């Protein structure tokens, strides 16, 4: 089975690019499977990866036709969807490509908004209408789609976000009172609330250390430079915890992530966004067996309900500090969290996730052709 992937892709630095690279790599290791990529870009660019066979360039109609032609060489196409990665208003240029794809299409939704604009709603409903299967990565996302959007719910499939087996099977010993947040940094990550929580934990012995690892999001740098990171440093200094806060803004390859995550005694996800139904960072923390303190975004509420962590209100540093303190000072409770997440870890590794995608692709290929003809018949195309 040959898979064609449409998404951003390395060297682009974003969550979808990393996701697509990992999924493609895992699919390519399955017996009888091969993978190629059509990379979504803002301008024509040479790719260093041999699996990249073409580009979808924002605002370029000819590239839309060429992208569809390339994808039609696959048996099954997997499209990563996020509003900001394709050209046009709310990324609507991807619809032109989807209408020209003649093989089964799996769309993977990375964002499902509870309060979309009218156009965002129309774009997402059209994308789903042009797909043969719609993958979401949490039950929260499935429920939100089914209740808030007009689409065929029989297409919906829940497949968890994958994680590197090395992260799930690490043997790194956590450092005492070590708090970790990582990922692309920018407003909305809520790190300022983590810094404020840190100021409530200075009485611990030893004093806690808070490591924020990751580069500033490229689009944030483009528009605001490093003002967010600089503001966090200033806040920490004002609160008297500047010596406890460390930034590591270096790019970290996947091979270094087990050591980074394994070193944490608590993973803190203080996100402001209450819309988030998928978090790759959360999945990695859970798979690594690290206790998690997270704000009550939907994916965290769902994934941590089995005892793998604690959820707290948004923008509440006192509640964050109390949860972190409990994990630090009650070892048995922290150990029970670690045990709870280990049960889930093997279901989250990329090889297991890739097998699920391959099974879904095989099922779509076995469907009657009439059931796969929605795109050529105009399915979803009249919405926009």
Notable characteristics:
six-stranded parallel beta sheet; seven-stranded parallel beta sheet; Rossmann fold; 15 helices; 384 residues; 17% strand; alpha/beta; disordered C terminus; single chain
Question: What is the element layout, followed by pairings?
Answer:
Blueprint: E1 2-7, H1 15-28, E2 34-41, E3 52-57, H2 61-71, E4 76-81, H3 94-100, E5 105-109, H4 118-129, E6 133-136, H5 139-148, E7 156-158, H6 165-168, E8 178-182, H7 191-198, E9 209-213, H8 218-224, H9 227-238, E10 245-248, H10 257-262, E11 266-269, H11 280-287, E12 292-295, H12 298-303, E13 309-312, H13 317-329, H14 331-348, H15 350-366
Parallel strand pairs: 1-2, 1-4, 2-3, 4-5, 5-6, 6-7, 8-9, 8-11, 9-10, 11-12, 12-13
Q: Architecture of the largest domain, CATH level 2?
A: 3-Layer(aba) Sandwich
Distance between the termini: 33 Å
Q: Give the amount of beta strand, in percent.
A: 15-25%
Radius of gyration: 21 Å
Strand order of the largest sheet: 3-2-1-4-5-6-7
The name CATH uses for the topology of the largest domain is Rossmann fold
- Major beta-sheet overview: 7 strands, parallel
User: Helix fraction?
Assistant: 25-40%
Mean pLDDT: 91
- What's the CATH superfamily of the largest domain, by name? Glycogen Phosphorylase B
Explain how this protein is built.
Strand 11, helix 11 and strand 12 form a beta-alpha-beta unit. It is globular and about 65 Å long. The strands form 2 sheets. The chain has a 7-stranded parallel beta sheet with strand order 3-2-1-4-5-6-7, with helices on both faces. With 384 residues, the chain is of the alpha/beta class. It has 15 helices and 13 strands. The protein has helices at residues 15-28, 61-71, 94-100, 118-129, 139-148, 165-168, 191-198, 218-224, 227-238, 257-262, 280-287, 298-303, 317-329, 331-348, 350-366, and strands at 2-7, 34-41, 52-57, 76-81, 105-109, 133-136, 156-158, 178-182, 209-213, 245-248, 266-269, 292-295, 309-312.
């Amino acid at each position: 089975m040959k898979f064609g992937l449409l998404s951003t892709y390395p060297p682009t630095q974003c969550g979808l690019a990393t996701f697509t690279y990992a999924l493609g790599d895992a699919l390519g290791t399955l017996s009888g499977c091969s993978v190629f990529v059509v990379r979504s870009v803002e301008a024509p660019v040479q790719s260093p990866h041999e699996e990249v066979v073409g580009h979808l360039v924002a605002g370029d109609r000819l590239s839309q036709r060429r992208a569809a032609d390339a994808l039609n060489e696959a048996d099954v196409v997997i499209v990563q969807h996020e509003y900001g990665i394709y050209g046009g208003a709310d990324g609507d240029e991807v619809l032109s490509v989807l209408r020209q794809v003649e093989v089964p299409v799996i769309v993977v939704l990375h964002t499902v908004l509870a309060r979309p604009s009218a156009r965002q709603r129309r774009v997402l409903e059209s994308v789903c209408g042009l797909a043969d299967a719609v993958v979401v990565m949490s039950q929260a996302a499935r429920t939100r789609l089914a209740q808030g959007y007009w689409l065929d719910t029989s297409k919906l499939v829940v497949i968890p976000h994958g994680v590197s087996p090395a992260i799930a099977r690490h043997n790194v010993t956590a450092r005492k009172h070590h708090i970790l947040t990582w990922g692309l940094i920018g407003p909305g990550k809520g790190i300022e609330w983590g810094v404020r929580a840190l100021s409530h934990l200075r009485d611990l012995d030893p004093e806690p250390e808070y490591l924020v690892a990751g580069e500033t999001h490229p689009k944030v740098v483009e528009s605001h430079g490093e003002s967010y990171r600089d503001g966090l440093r200033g806040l920490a200094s004002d609160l008297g915890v500047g010596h406890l806060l460390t930034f590591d803004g270096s790019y970290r390859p996947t091979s270094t992530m087990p050591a980074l995550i394994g070193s944490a005694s608590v993973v803190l996800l203080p996100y402001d966004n209450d819309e988030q139904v998928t978090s790759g960072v959360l999945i990695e923390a859970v798979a690594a067996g690290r206790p998690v303190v997270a704000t009550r975004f939907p994916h965290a509420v769902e994934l941590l309900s089995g005892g793998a962590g604690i959820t707290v209100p948004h923008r509440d540093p006192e509640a964050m500090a109390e949860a972190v303190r409990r994990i630090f000072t009650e070892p048995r409770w922290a150990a029970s969290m670690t045990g709870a997440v280990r049960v889930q870890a093997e279901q989250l590794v990329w090889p297991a996730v890739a097998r699920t995608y391959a099974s879904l692709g095989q099922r779509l290929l076995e469907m009657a052709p009439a059931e796969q003809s929605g795109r050529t018949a105009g399915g979803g195309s009249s919405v926009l």
